[in-house]
Amino acid sequence: MAEHLIKFSEYKWENAMDGVRCKVYRHGGKQLRLVEYTSEMTPHWCDKGHYGYILEGEFEIEYPGETVLYKAGDGVFIPEGDEHRHRARVISESVRAVFVEEL
Predict the structure, then answer these.
(1) 47-94 tens-digit pLDDT
(2) What is the C-alpha to C-alpha distance for residues 7 and 24, in angstroms, rounded to an integer?
(3) How far apart are alpha carbons 6 and 27 in whole angstroms?
(4) Coil, strand or helix at 59
């Protein structure tokens, strides 16, 4: 059932912003993103929700009141909203992650 297979190797990288590129599959109000972050990413606060898995690398995400280190093999669960605003900083050379998100 090839319709259930997403071959990211066949997708082109899209530049989301400096230091961030992704490959995106969209369907039915959701998207699956393969994202690569580098240290060139401009620091910025985000209030969107993110649910995913760190494939490679390390980064820290700052939240109001705490900073959390994420490494390969860790899951990420950030609800949407200002109370969960966050900004990431790449610690390793790069970070690769997969996220499932609402459109």
Answers:
(1) 999 999 999 999 999 999 999 999 999 999 999 999 999 999 999 999
(2) 11
(3) 11
(4) strand
